[in-house]
Amino acid sequence: MNRRLFWKLCIVIAVGSVGLFWIIARVAWQTEERMSFIDAEHQRTLRHYGEQAESLYRGGDHQTLERWLNTLQQQEQTWAAVVQAEVRPLVGELSPRFLEGFGLGRDVSWKIHLYFAENPIMDIPFSDRSASFLIQLPQRMRPGLNWHYAKLLLQLVVPLVLLLIVCLVLYRHLMQPLRRLEQATRQFSDGRYDVRVRSLLGSRNDELASLADTFDAMAERTGQLIIDQRQRLADMSHELRTPLTRIEMAVSLAEQGADSRVLLERIRDDCNGMRQLVEDALTLSWLENERPQLRDEILDLTELLDSILDDARFEYPDRRLLAHLPGQAVLAGSSHRALGQAIENVVRNALDHTPPGGVVEVDLQADEQAWQLLIRDQGPGVDEQWLERIFQPFFRVGSERAGYGLGLALAQRQIRATGGSILASNREGGGLQMTICLPQQPNGQS
Amino acid sequence: MSASLARILIIEDDRTLCAQLGELLRGQGYATSSSNLGEAGLGMAISDAPDLVLLDVLLPDLNGFSVLRRLREHQQTPVIMLTACGAEEERIRGLRHGADDYLPKPFNITELQLRIDAVLRRTRMTDSVRPADVQQLQVDELRLERHAQRVTVNEREVSFTPIQFRVLWHLVSHRGEALSKPYLYRTVLERDYSSYDRSLDMHISRIRRLLGEAGLATDRLQTLHGRGYVFQ
User: Fold this and answer.
1) CB atoms within 10 A of CB A227
2) Given A283, A315, A340, which is nearest B86 (Cβ)?
3) Whole-prediction pTM value?
4) Residue among A38, A13, A47, A307 at smallest CA distance from A174
5) Residue A306 predicted with pLDDT over 90
6) ipTM score of the complex?
7) Are A54 and A126 within 8 A, CB to CB?
8) Residue ranges per domain, chain A?
9) Would you list which residues of chain B are within 8 Å, Cβ to Cβ, of chain A?
10) Phi, psi dihedrals of residue B58, rounded to the nearest 5°
């Protein structure tokens, strides 16, 4: 996955272009080679001229030969002659190799230098090699007349077209996922929070795919956050409506002259309820949005529980609170504010759901790595399928009036912020058991 | 001199809340003045030199923190900020900028009064140096020696941390008098009290346990829910 796009580009651009130019050079060279030879038919014609010249020469009629030669020169618009050349060594000897290769002009089967403007002299020796028919290659027989165009095509047009195609392919390869991303971003900003990109990119597995993964993760979290916040706002408004209605009723009753002492008491209760709700909602959204780590304190759980249970006993004088706490329970890397509020909410919740006269048990035990805090109530318990959802804000079981509000949601997030966890389960004999697990050794400030 | 407990300046842009606060505080025996604007309020704070300022953070013309900063350039009048953030977030972000205390909205008059008391009590305490400090306290079998920070019950020493000692010393020296949490936080823990702060409660729990183990009746140190603590 690392730098796949880089390697892709390397292969396409660097290796590809070097390869392309190598092939073009080779093809150009081969083409030139192939185009340098005189056409077979013209070779035959030239040889035929040679044979004609030889037979006329052998016939001894030099005038006929001259006439023929003149006609041929006019016809082919070139120069031609029958010549005899004798090579006499002045010093040294003539080697057979030299005699074999010696000619007055070029053999018709040889290549022509296409880059010479002048046409070469062709040498067609008589069969006994006594004389030669020489002719400057007629222009009509010159090979490689298209050589310049072919060169232009091979050296400019072909690489240009090929590179343009490569650019196009690369562009599409890069732009296709980017365009998908752009579309997705636009859709997301239009409010389609379920839009995802990665699955549209197929088996692709490069930097752009990882960008798509990142986008998807962002869309997942942001979308969920927006949906949650909307739901939260709706729930909040709903939760505030009831106490507000009660307050309005109380005010109206007071205006009608009802006992204002009772009514004021009720208004105060409702105000406290709303205030708690607003405060909890603020803390909850802070915990969720900033995900703070609240782990910079060393505290004694026994002291903390003592103070919480003391308050709870005062608040619920008609329930019994049984506590089994060790004399000391030191916990490092925590926060007594977050943890205290969380435990307070869980204990209060347990007391709320326990009928008057009932018992709520609070046990603190140590195992090897963690403190286990068990809070058991004698309430109706929670249907197995809802055991996890009671930690969601404003969760209600069915249409039950007394919901869990924000208390447990807040508790769960606060416990998490201190590195712990909370789990709900049903007791065998009925009632709910909350297990709060608080690791004794904080595993780093992650 | 007026017969009021203290003169309080309220700088709060919501006129209704401002008027209600003034009325409630006058009902409690304070003299109040008020301003709905930061600039004007700052002027009043400097010219009138009130004993305490209640300052809203969100003001239409001037941010409450700016008011506080400029006020501090002139004088050390105690200031309680009224904020609208969650208490824990507020505490962690440390948005206090040198206020003497802060109180998140919504709050009720009891809470406000406890805070005002605590702040005023502390500033007045530092104003007038307390004469001839007591060095020893003895209540029945409990004995506290200030210099040695020693606590004994029936001549048996009980081990206390310095903070636990200070808490107990304060409660015992004000025996029978309810000491509020904001006050104890100010004077003993030397910091502000915010809701959900249980440091003091935890110290009290430990002190109670220690005294109980040493044989002292645990109901000597009582929790007055919503009000504070008292040593009987």
Assistant:
1) 12
2) A283
3) 0.63
4) A13
5) yes
6) 0.71
7) yes
8) 40-143, 231-290, 297-439
9) 85-89, 91-92, 104, 106, 108, 195-199, 201-206, 208-209, 223, 225
10) -95, 110
Tokens of A43: 């070779």
Q: Do A336 and B208 touch (CB under 8 A)?
A: no
- The whole-angstrom distance between A224's CA and the closest CA on chain B is 23
DSSP annotation string for A329-381: -EEEEE-HHHHHHHHHHHHHHHHHHSPTT-EEEEEEEE-SSEEEEEEE--S--
Range of the domain at B222: 136-231
Query: Looking at chain B, how many residues does it have?
Result: 232
Mutation pick from A282, A291, A315 vs chain B, by most beta carbons of B within 10 Å, is A282
A40-143, CATH topology level: Beta-Lactamase (3.30.450)
Q: What is the secondary structure of B31-79 as a DSSP string?
A: EEEEESSHHHHHHHHHHH--SEEEEES--SSS-HHHHHHHHHHH----E
- Min distance A337 CA to chain B CA atoms (Å): 5
Q: What is the CATH number of the domain that holds B93?
A: 3.40.50.2300
Q: Which helix (H) or strand (E) covers residue B150, if one does?
A: strand B150-153
- Structural domains of chain B, count: 2
**Interface probe with A: pick from B201, B207, B221, B225, most Cβ of A within 10 Å:** B201
Size of interface A-B (CB pairs under 8 A): 67
A303 touches chain B (CB under 8 A): yes
Give the tens place of pLDDT for each residue, A45-78: 999 999 989 988 888 888 888 999 999 999 989 9
Q: How far is A414 from chain B (nearest CA, A)?
A: 11
